[in-house]
Amino acid sequence: MKRRGALGRQSGATLFVGLMMLVLITLMLITAFTLSTTNLRVVGNMQFREQAIAAANAAVEERIGLTQSGVAASALKGQTTHAIDIDRDGSSDYSVAVSMECVSAKLDVAAPKSSLSLPKDMSDEGTWDTTWDVRAAVTDSRTEASLVMYSGILIHLRDAVKKAACDA
Q: Cβ–Cβ contacts within 10 Å for residue 79, how many?
């Protein structure tokens, strides 16, 4: 009979401890899931940032390449939009709006004219070291996320191009 009396007086402490352990384990799992989701977002944002910077640099290099290929000085001024395919799958990943502004120009008297790839009819012109402020606004075409990058560059220009691009 003592045995039956002992069983009848149990107050459910084991059940209570078991439920508390279940609640603690559930809270730990929820915290771990939240942290992993947050870390995944951070990694995704870092990847977007790096790809957006690469797209901005590609668009700026494309824009500067226009000046080196003999395109008119008007290609330097104002804003142009470039479609950039980062993963080279044939579709545009980023749209980059590049705007450039001439800040200063200094006559480059030290540069030998033979080192510049100028046409012979322009070899008597002076060359200028021009400093430009560049703003590249990148927009992801899929998510509409955006990033703005600012930089400064130095471009060597012929006298005629410098007059049209910086003096106007």
A: 11
